[in-house]
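Saturday, quiet lab. Running sequence design on the structure tokens for the scaffold JK sent over.
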């Protein structure tokens, strides 16, 4: 099976999309096992940080199987939600699971009007974009001024100790889990190595500022593994 290009390796969207199409049936199980179910708590933290309100409009981008969209609806039943992802099999599973509106879309060229949304979320999806700057620019375009952005991601660690722990888990535990959970070892190689090749959280925060966001704040949810960044669309 052909190698899936990593962040910084040029044109990669078709290969990444095909990979997610293949692993869609086992994606929820993958998340739960790889994170010992902590990923659900992280998603709740993401939604809580944005404090959605009834009547607001939320774009859940790179929505996958729509766990964030479902959590947002639980928190604010009157929230207007659109989930978007470039992998139709992932999105179809999410729509069947949640009953929420969904649309297949390219995150780098969203078929949506400007200033359409009050909030946007991305959970574990920005490192899969072919161009981080273009993806953030699109998020800024579709958010109204003052709109809130929340991003969960596996950022590259800046701490030597955290990198060692992260690398040990990635190189020893995850390959075993991958063989047990899926016949597609290439997908697990990508998921592990893309974490190690992506931006650090400070680098990502600076990219948000370049894209037109202010009040950029980041926090570590799990040392060396998961970070949360929130920002506000500048006027």
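Result came back. Writing it out in full:
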């Amino acid at each position: 099976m052909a190698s899936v290009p990593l962040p910084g390796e040029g044109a990669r969207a078709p290969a990444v999309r095909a990979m997610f199409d293949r692993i869609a049936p086992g994606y929820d199980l993958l998340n739960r096992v790889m994170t010992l179910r902590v990923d659900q708590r992280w998603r709740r933290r993401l939604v809580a940080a944005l404090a959605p309100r009834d009547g607001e409009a939320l774009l859940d981008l790179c929505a996958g199987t729509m766990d964030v969209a479902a959590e947002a609806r639980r928190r604010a039943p009157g929230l207007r939600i659109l989930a978007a992802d470039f992998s139709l099999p992932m999105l179809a599973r999410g729509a069947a699971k949640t009953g929420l509106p969904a649309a297949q879309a390219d995150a780098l060229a969203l078929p949506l009007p400007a200033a359409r949304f009050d909030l946007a979320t991305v959970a574990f999806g920005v490192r899969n974009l072919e161009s981080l700057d273009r993806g953030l620019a699109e998020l800024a375009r579709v958010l109204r001024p003052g709109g809130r952005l929340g991003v969960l991601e596996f950022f590259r660690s800046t701490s030597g100790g955290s990198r060692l722990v992260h690398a040990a888990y990635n190189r020893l535990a995850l390959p075993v889990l991958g063989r047990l959970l899926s016949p597609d070892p290439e997908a697990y190689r990508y998921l592990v190595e893309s974490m190690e090749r992506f931006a650090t959280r400070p680098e990502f925060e600076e990219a948000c500022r370049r894209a037109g966001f202010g009040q950029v704040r980041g926090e570590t949810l799990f040392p060396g593994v998961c970070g949360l960044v929130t920002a506000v669309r500048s006027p």
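Notes for JK: Residues 46 and 150 are 6 Å apart (CA to CA). The longest strand covers residues 143-153. Ask whether to fix the surface positions before the next round.
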